[in-house]
Amino acid sequence: MVRKKKHSFSTTQIILFSFLATIFVGSALLALPISSASGESVPYLDALFTATTSTCVTGLVTLPTVSTWSVFGQVVILLLIQIGGLGIITIMSGLMILLNRKMGISDRLLIQDAFNLNTMSGLAKFVKNVLFGTLVIEGIGAALYMLVFVPEFGARGVWISVFNSISAFCNAGIDIIGENSLCNYATNPLINAVTSALIILGGLGYIVWWDVLRVIKSRSSKNRRIFRHLTLQSKIAITVTAGLLLIGAALIFIFEYENPATIGNMSLFDKIQASFFQSVTTRTAGFAAIAQENLTNASAAVSIILMLIGGSPVGTAGGMKTVTIAVLVCSAFATVRNKSSATLFGRRISEESVKKAVAVTVTFLTIFAISTILLMASTDADALDVVYETVSATATVGLTRNLTSTLNVFGKLVIIVTMYFGRVGPISLAVALGSRNESQNVISEPTEDISIG
């Protein structure tokens, strides 16, 4: 008797199907009458759109979250956001640890690939730290939000605070405060500071967290020089993030300074904090403190660039990622200067890292380009609004220039698919590129030079 060979799914397939399964389960729950504030089922396409934008932590919505969904529906949305932000693999691994189930080699390989780690040692501790750190930060964020929302909304302010904290940390950008996001709090320093901190911490990535803590614990002297002892990835992530936030805020401040539709009528301090928040939220968070459709074309262009770059690897943010862009830029400068390899902070960047950065960028831009063409074919909206929408969907940002709610059926399907591939595409590609090669060709093809540029 011949035994059939057992089929095993690759890490890439597991990631793709786990997100897909979560979306469809979520859409089925949101399509139930109990999920609707009116007691009547919402159209399934809108339920599917909401489940996708929640699981992919994007934030684009076809229906207002606060008025469309019941408490049950909002709970479903929040669970989808948390699962999408952490990843279904992290959630399942955490449950295994909680139930004292021993992790097998396949489980460890899955976690290693999902987080793109270089070692399998200490994976259980890593997952515990991710889950514990997430709960602590989200808890602190919720407590700080309550200082504003409880006095304003009463007991409901507690639920709003918890929802907003998880959504901000996961870079989802969905809220249950009102239909104009955080525009009513554009000049509130506490809301701006807490939301910005949650977005930045989620976008920096878990690896950067633990690296910073490692250095702090290992340095006993007062002059710790923390930055000097960080890994190259942490240095790049922190430096590029800080640089983009400050440059983005400065440009938006300049371009919007006299715009009465955005920050033109604010005080100098409020203009600064509103500009900084816009720079922060474009890092794939999606909360809006100023109406995006009222931005000048220059500010919209800056926001598009910031959305495309996004956050850092192994975090809750989307986009092409800070490290990817840093590697590409340094590699380009090295080529222009006729250097054999690119270097950053005194370290040489491997050729393999450059290849991965190119692959992730090309994949990301391909998703964006196809989405833009298809959406333009389905609507007669302004080209800038369409590009803003597709960049937002591809980078899982959630900012819109009032286009999402006007989309037809085809347009909604385009954005649904774009959000899904924008979330899982770069992740799956990174996993595939980092996976172990099963075979190597003994004979390679001949090499031939071609003209570039």
The structure class reads mainly alpha
The major sheet is characterized as: 2 strands, antiparallel
User: What string, H for helix and E for strand, traces the elements in order?
Assistant: HHHHHHHHHHHHHHEEHHH
The radius of gyration is: 22 Å
Helix content: 55-70%
First and last CA, distance: 60 Å
Mean pLDDT: 86
Low-confidence stretches: none
Task: List the domain count as a whole number.
Answer: 1
Estimate the strand proportion. Answer: under 5%
What would you note in describing this structure?
With about 450 residues, the chain is mainly α. It has one domain (about 10-110, about 120-215, about 225-435). The chain is about 60% helix and about 0% strand. The protein contains 17 helices and two strands. It has helices at about 10-30, 45-55, 65-70, 70-85, 90-100, 105-115, 125-155, 155-170, 190-205, 205-220, 230-255, 270-280, 295-310, 320-335, 350-380, 385-395, 410-435; strands spanning about 345, 345-350. It has a two-stranded antiparallel ribbon with strand order 1-2. A hairpin with a 2-residue loop joins β1 (about 345) and β2. α2 packs across α4 and α15 runs antiparallel to α17. The mean pLDDT is about 85.
Summarize the structure.
With 453 residues, this protein is mainly alpha-helical.
Sequence-ordered SSE layout with sheet pairings:
Blueprint: H1 11-30, H2 44-55, H3 65-68, H4 71-86, H5 88-98, H6 105-114, H7 123-153, H8 156-169, H9 189-204, H10 206-218, H11 232-256, H12 268-281, H13 297-309, H14 322-336, E1 343-344, E2 347-348, H15 351-378, H16 383-394, H17 409-434
Antiparallel strand pairs: 1-2
